[in-house]
Write a structure and sequence with these properties.
This protein has 236 residues and is an alpha+beta fold. It contains three helices and 13 strands; from the N terminus they run αααβββββββββββββ. The relative contact order is 0.15. The structure holds copper (II) ion.
Length: 236
């Protein structure tokens, strides 16, 4: 997957691993106790003589409570910390301080690549436009040449959908708006998502690092045909 940065793939793996680990402890503990502490036949189910409204303080275990409060807290802080890492790539500024330089001159190529830290870098980028409306997407390649950016239609599950064809190795900065309600561009192939808001311009980096083809979806519920608000993006 050619995300804005492969760092996303690493974070995905981290989150899945931690979810499995925490899930195994939580459900293992739950099922173990559910079976191990069941009352035997004929035994009073209330062996501890618990009374409604009275907390059984004699069963307090401070060490246990501190442990299951502090450990998950540390884990959450850690997961938050590692998910911060790629945000500067998602919201990279333009110009020399950003990851993708300034706008390409005519004939210039982005020559993007993935650096040792897992970030996509480009020598320059191309501008394009995305407009959302109920219930389709509109692409605009502005002045870009056909081989770098072209629009058309693709047949997706028997229906004609907008098609955006981009070039491998080029990096694009989408300028986006909506003419009616809030939508959201979800480009799973790039690993990114951004809202499209009426009366407000939002931006989205789309670094086309490798050949791919995927459906761009709307990720913000926008009415009856929200689920069919798709377009195809092909990088070749
Ligand atoms: Cu929508």
């Amino acid at each position: 997957m050619a995300g804005v940065t492969p760092l996303y793939d690493a974070i995905w793996d981290d989150y899945i691993l931690w979810s499995l680990f925490v899930g195994a402890i939580a459900f293992g503990w739950l099922y173990h106790h559910s079976y191990f502490y069941r009352s035997e036949d004929g035994e009073s189910p209330n062996v501890d003589n618990l009374k409604v409204g009275v907390f059984p303080k004699e069963y307090d275990n401070l060490r246990l409570e501190v442990t299951w409060t502090v450990l998950p807290f540390i884990l959450i802080v850690w997961l938050t910390y590692i998910s911060w890492a790629p945000l500067d790539a998602v919201w990279s500024e333009t110009g020399p301080d950003g990851f993708h330089g300034s706008e390409c001159q005519e004939g210039e190529s982005s020559e993007n690549y993935i650096d040792a830290g897992g970030y996509v870098r480009s020598s320059c980028y191309h501008d394009l436009g995305i407009t959302g409306q109920q219930w389709f997407w509109e692409f605009d390649c502005y002045e870009l040449s056909e081989d770098i950016c072209s629009t058309g239609y693709a047949t997706v599950e028997g229906e004609l959908k907008p098609l955006l064809t981009l070039k491998t190795g080029e990096t694009y900065l989408a300028t986006m708006d909506s003419i009616d309600v809030t939508h959201a561009v979800k480009n799973s192939g790039f690993g990114i998502m951004e809202d499209v808001v009426p009366g407000q311009i939002t931006y989205l980096w789309m670094p086309a690092v490798e050949d791919t083809s995927f459906l761009m979806l709307c990720a913000e519920y926008c009415g009856d045909n929200h689920a069919y608000m798709t377009a195809q993006i092909t990088v070749e």
